[in-house]
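does this look right to u?? pyridoxal-5'-phosphate version
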Amino acid sequence: MDLDVRAHTLDRSDPLAGVRSRFLIEDDLTYLDGNSLGRPTKASVDAVRALAEKAWPQSLVMGWDNWIDSGQQAGETLAPLIGAQSHEVSLSDQTSINLYKLASAAMASGDRSAIVTDAGNFPSDLYILEGVAAAHGGEIRVAPEDATPDELDSRMDGSVALVALTHVAYRSGAMHDGAAMTAVAQKHGARMLWDLAHSAGAVPVALGEWGADLAVGCTYKYLNGGPGSPGFVFVREDLQPILEQPIAGWFGHRDQFGFNQEFDPDPTIRRFLTGTPSILASASALAGIELAAEVGITAIHAKAISLTSLFIDAIDAVGAGTHDVITPRDPDRRGSHVTVRHIEAERISIALRDRGVIVDHRAPDLVRFGFAPSYNTHHQAVHAAEAFHEVVISKDYERFGAGSRRVT
Ligand SMILES: *Cc1c(COP(=O)(O)O)cnc(C)c1O
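got this back:
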């Protein structure tokens, strides 16, 4: 079938078609960077406005009665999206900081000192894991990019305290087998920590079913919480009272307002909090999480597969030979972005943005097309593939210089 006809048919029967109107969209961009920063929901904008115009000026410090537990309340709404129980999740700090806290907590509880990860992990994660391992007298072992369970298994032994992986890889879009990787880590007596930055709000995650120990993630990508909105932590119920996180602050104290001189860690998920959260950012994040929870992760994932499959077919159809799709073609093995390799990735990404197709590139040769199931359309998937093809064939990217942008 003709790609445009197929896109039209899919858009007409899309059960999520109405969800796009819940976003504040004031442009006609083909926005395919929601895996980096999601679009704002109208509810987030309303929540921030209500705080700024009403709750903050009117409630003043008394507002904290309502705000103090907002991280855990948002965690309850987020929990079903990642297969966790409601008391196992809280908003907190940022993903990088949460990774530091939870990785350190996993190390502190034994005499093992190595951390295993893979080369497809996010560089910030690698830096943090390396620092945590070094602080415990160990080192990180890096399995190949998008490692298989067997490749992970061959790096494991009795000195490994922790396996830390990003569930959907930021470069390739490949998705790990959560159950299989968790089982490998735990078979060797290590804890398993998942980074869900590219998973939460895009693909189903079953932390409980997998038996995962720990997880972190962010709310500003597929959960549309806003630039710099808070990260989240997951700590399995039985570990909450026994793990010790390294930044003991008053938000983790059993009696926060007792103002005791000694730290007495709370036995619940609160133990993994540290200091005062941004209530403006949390309110925005909650609205994004609520919309994703309302739509449901099963429906979101079905649309993600539909969009990415159509895009891969369209890329194959328009441009055989000049570039490869490096994202797995098996929809069960990928997240919600598709990565195309081309030697001119950076200038192609700039040229596409110039045409209103907002993508990004990852050095040296990858262009990422991120599909946000709640607001992207099948028509946009085909349009992006066609625009990519035109830019490549016409060499239109030659009009642009590389290396000009601070943020790629
Ligand atoms: C986006 C992303 C982060 C971001 O961490 P911040 O602390 O929010 O800057 C971390 N890990 C992964 C895998 C990411 O994709």
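The mean pLDDT is 96. idk if thats expected tbh
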